[in-house]
Write a structure and sequence with these properties.
elongated, mainly alpha, single chain
Length: 431
């Protein structure tokens, strides 16, 4: 028995695109904007943390985070994200998408603010509390991430489902852009108020005292977009698919979806009971693996492979910019100037390389298809990364820095490719 036998599901699948769909994209998308901002802003502020808390007065180079501490600070949120996806994904099925979605939002706000506070001034206290709250921030992001896709897929109609989910995912690109933009603005304002000599002229005064406020403000601003959408999240009803299929309340599902879609939907409680009997099976059952085993392995493995490249590239790009000559050497700038220059390059690459790929996916995913976009993206990523890896010593010079930047900017094909489709496909295949 298919979903078309139930009026509420058929109504959702065939509903014309209307204002409520747009509102759902914005609400779910702002959650994704927050996720991206919170995950990637740490790559900007980690350089400041090194100068502030790990400087050696006798060294000829600015302070930087030790490798093991840097890896933990930048990566601990991703560990939390993995755990959060498993926990909140399970809770989303048990308690409802909307309820868990609201919980993740509140906790994200709290953890973003606490990440910026990071109580204390000693290196041990700051790094310890930062790691603690970044883990839990990642944990909440892990809940928000799959629920955004699930909610949008359960609201969308068949004809535009891929485009709608991809439009939610676009906000990841916007979040990355705002990481660079916000960091540029904050560092510029602080730099204007507190100019300082470069490190090679004065290794002490080159790290302005107000730098300690700059990195905290950048992290804490991650709470703002989540707060701005809280009211609208609270006003969203539970998705009709969850209410009907999992809760088994056809009357409530018909009422909720009929109200937001402005149509009349039949309740069909008896038909719903028959539908649940034919489609109710646990994830670890033989029936699930018979129906979705290949889908599960395929979506899981491609997402895993993509994330190694995507997150590895975006979280470590700050270390590549100076090597390429896109920013000045650390010795030639003060702390806030280094933050400003790094943010500017990150903003430019995100605006003209990363971001357009997301938007190309929205109109073309229904025309080209998920499979071909994903295949093309993986292929193009492999080609450009292979070239950068083989020719790294040649490209990572001042003379060839713009060629390297151009190749690096062709991460366009990660986003007009597997970074978008690995988000869309699971939400559709397991619907």
């Amino acid at each position: 028995m298919t979903s078309n036998n139930l009026s509420v599901l058929e109504a959702l699948d065939t509903a014309r695109t209307q204002w409520y769909h747009v509102k759902a994209i914005v609400i779910a998308g702002m959650g994704f904007f927050t996720d991206a901002y919170d995950l990637f802003c740490i790559s900007i502020v980690s350089k400041l943390l090194g100068r502030l808390y790990f400087s050696d007065g006798n060294s000829t180079d600015p302070g930087k985070l030790p490798t093991n501490i840097n890896n933990v600070v930048t990566g601990v949120a991703l560990i939390g994200t993995l755990a959060g996806q498993l926990v909140f994904g399970w809770l989303g099925d048990k308690l409802g998408r909307k309820r868990v979605y609201d919980i993740t939002l509140i906790l994200m706000v709290i953890c973003a603010l606490c990440s910026g506070l990071s109580f204390g001034y000693s290196p041990k206290a700051v790094i310890g509390t930062l790691r603690f709250f970044r883990f839990w921030l990642g944990f909440e992001i892990g809940g928000d991430y799959p629920l955004s896709a699930t909610i949008m897929s359960e609201y969308a109609n068949k004809n535009t489902r891929g485009s709608f989910i991809a439009a939610v995912f676009v906000m990841q690109g916007v979040g990355i852009i705002f990481v660079g933009l916000v960091s540029m603005i904050v560092s510029h304002l602080f730099l204007t108020a507190n100019p300082a000599p470069p490190f090679h002229e004065d290794n002490v005064l080159s790290t302005q005292r107000n730098t300690d406020f700059a990195w905290r403000i950048v992290l804490m601003l991650g709470a703002l977009p989540a707060l701005l959408t809280y009211y609208w999240r609270m006003k969203m009803p539970e998705t009709g698919r969850y209410t009907a299929i999992i809760v088994g309340n056809a009357k409530q599902a018909a009422s909720d979806m009929g109200r937001v879609l402005d149509i009349e939907i039949q309740e069909e409680q008896e038909k719903l009971a028959m539908f649940k009997a034919n489609n109710d099976y646990p994830i670890r059952s033989r029936k699930f693996y018979k129906r979705h085993g290949r889908h599960f392995i395929g979506t899981m493995s491609t997402w895993f492979l993509l994330d190694i490249a995507f997150y590895g590239q975006n979280l470590t790009q700050k270390d590549i910019f100076s090597v390429m000559g896109l920013t000045k050497k650390a010795n030639d700038v003060n702390a806030l100037e280094e933050m400003f220059l790094t943010s500017r390059v990150m903003f430019i690459i995100a605006m003209f390389g990363t971001f357009p790929g997301y938007w190309f996916t929205v109109p073309f995913i229904e025309k080209i298809g998920r499979f071909y976009i994903q295949l093309m993206g993986f292929f193009m990523m492999s080609v450009f990364m292979f070239i950068m890896g083989i020719k790294y010593d040649y490209l990572a010079t001042k003379e060839n820095r713009w060629v390297f930047a151009g190749l690096y900017g062709l991460t366009f094909f990660a986003n007009f490719g597997p970074n978008s489709t690995t988000f869309v496909l699971p939400a559709e295949l397991f619907l």
